[in-house]
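Support request, priority: normal
Reporter: lab tech (M.K.)
Component: structure prediction queue

Hi team, I submitted a job for Release factor glutamine methyltransferase from Sutterella massiliensis yesterday, and the status page still shows it as pending. I've pasted the exact input below so you can check whether something in the sequence is tripping the parser. The sequence length should be 273 residues. Please let me know if I need to resubmit or if it's stuck on your end.
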Amino acid sequence: MSASADALDTIRAQIAFGAAQIGRFEAMLLLGHAIGRTREFLIAHDDETLDEESILRYHMLITLRSAGTPIPYITGRQEFFGRYFEVNDAVLIPRPDTEVLVEQALLVAPAKPRILDLGTGSGCIAITLALEIPGAEVTATDASAAALATAERNARALGASVRFREGFWWDAVPQKDMFEVVVSNPPYIRPDDEHLANLGNEPLGALTDGIDGLQCLRDIVAGAMAHLKKGGWLLLEHGYDQGEDVRNLLLSAGFAAVHTKKDYGGNDRVTFG
Ligand code: GLN
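Reply from support: The job had stalled in the queue. We restarted it manually and it finished. Here are the results:
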């Protein structure tokens, strides 16, 4: 056995150290982030030694993670629909379930559509649609200036052309602006939902309306008809138990062809009409 096999400053030893606290997968992610190396590099060079500063940086990240900070807020990025988006604690971390909303929007969008994304957060929906649909003209809104700044950086980094507007829901949209597709993943968690406690690092205002979970969805549906072209579509993400409520909201507002799509977990997630 060589002397370095017992050394505590090798990549291998430091992965084992982190794995005991946060699991091997996350330990490798954070070590890779701390030293600017890929997972493949860590595996191929696991007997290399790390300098003290790198180890300190890595241990700080483990402490953050152990205290509950989500990995994307530590690494500053999250994958969505095959692209990496910058995230920070001003925006919701993009969820795989939201890809169901994007997929459905891609199915219903006509050629060269005018698209509106209300409450864009990181910009993941608006930017993905702008990049996936040739000739799409995309507008995205958010009430948070910090979120909009993040979305703008993401659009620039990914080469998407999106018009950003600040304001609450329809307040941000000029009266005469009309769209073929309106999408939104608004805050829809009920304030008394026990899941909310586990999402404590993300902006509360992006998660819950503070009322009954349906208020933002109501506000969006209420204004949608006035901004949709004839034959246009409204697509809304919502909670697993809100499908019927949202279908009824759309039907009462005069929408037709109202359907709900399930997410990857088999729950109602996206209603459109
Ligand atoms: N539209 C963004 C997303 O889907 C933000 C949603 C939100 O903050 N509620 O991730």
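The two ends are 67 Å apart (CA to CA). Residues 184 and 247 are 15 Å apart (CA to CA). Let us know if anything else looks off. Ticket resolved.
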